[in-house]
Amino acid sequence: MAPPRCCTAARPCHAAPGCACCCPPGPRPRWPGACSPTLVEAERATHERTGLTLTMCVNYGGRTEITAAAAKLAQEAVAGRVDPGSLSEHAFARYPHVPELPDVDLLVRTGGDQRTSNFPPW
Fold first, then answer.
1. Which of 60, 77, 115, 68 is nearest to 95 (CA)?
2. Measured on CA atoms in the order 96, 100, 105, 108, is the torsion positive or negative?
């Protein structure tokens, strides 16, 4: 049986000297079982690299991420730690699953889809 696509996609990043592999933590509970150990290991082994970030969104949904970020922001506002009237793109960018991820430069869809809906909005 061939390894899952996520496993083969992680290999080039793991081998490239400056490449760091990142998998946003939000959707991890829904990852296909065989992918999880491979992706977590690729992330662990490459987390200190700074040349290129390969973000692998396995079973990812941008709408889910935005909803979760909005919920976190709302909790902060209710607790009085955020002023809703002063919200900006910059302030909202602190709430996604991995706020420190750089902006997307290249998007590759491996499943044959050609749409970009439901992917990271920025």
1. 68
2. negative
